[in-house]
Amino acid sequence: FFFHAEDGIRDKLVTGVQTCALPIYIALTTDVIVGFPGETDADFEETLRVYREADFDHAFTFIYSPRAGTEAAGFDDQVPDAVKHERLERLVDVVQELAARRNEALVGSEQEVLSEGPSRTDPAVFRGRTRGGKTALFTPSAPAGTAVRIVVESATSQTLRGAAVSAVQAR
User: Fold this and answer.
1) Which pairs count as long-range contacts for 116-123, CB under 8 Å and 24+ apart, including other chains?
2) Closest CA to 40 of 2, 68, 94
3) Among residues 128, 140, 130, which one has the least CA distance to residue 166?
4) Which has the least CB within 10 A, 24, 81, 139, 142?
5) What are phi and psi of 133, to 5 degrees?
6) Which of 34, 93, 32, 30 lies closest to 63 in space, CA to CA?
């Protein structure tokens, strides 16, 4: 995020995410790069704080790596690799913690899932995506391209598991 308090962007982001009221469930994700040149310990702690406050469903996390020909590659205040890796590990822990909590909150709910066909690890279990883009594993089977409603029976930070209860009628 690398926000500066005087920008006001952090507060607008967090407030916008927290007050967004939609009639359907959406999953809000973000991308986070750690270790950009000049990132201080305080900047990184602010990134963790903003991520927690915004309560994202998930994040795609990356370590900054210099690219030849870019302005940032020439900056003097490069963050050491060991620091970048430690920060990424801490960020991923927070991302996984919040994703698990958000997914566990869906246990017992019905979710619409678009079947992608059999799972890669167990052909008796089918895999698909919810409307919010979450991976769902379910039984009984549903052909790829079929929308089904599942009741979520369990969850991890990455996956919902459930039982298909009905097909979804085409709109």
Assistant:
1) 116/144, 117/143, 117/144
2) 2
3) 140
4) 24
5) 85, 5
6) 34
**pTM for the whole structure:** 0.79
The predicted model gives 77-81 an average pLDDT of 96
- Residue 143: Cβ within 10 Å count: 9
Handedness of CA 71, 48, 23, 143 (dihedral sign): positive
Distances from the Cα of 150 to the Cαs of 125, 137, 147, 164, in angstroms? Answer: 13, 9, 10, 4
Give the whole-angstrom CA distance, residue 58 versus residue 56.
5
Please name which of 75, 86, 73, 72 lies closest in space to residue 34, comparing C-alpha atoms.
86
Contacts of residue 13, defined as CB under 8 A and 6 or more positions apart, other chains included, come to: 50, 54
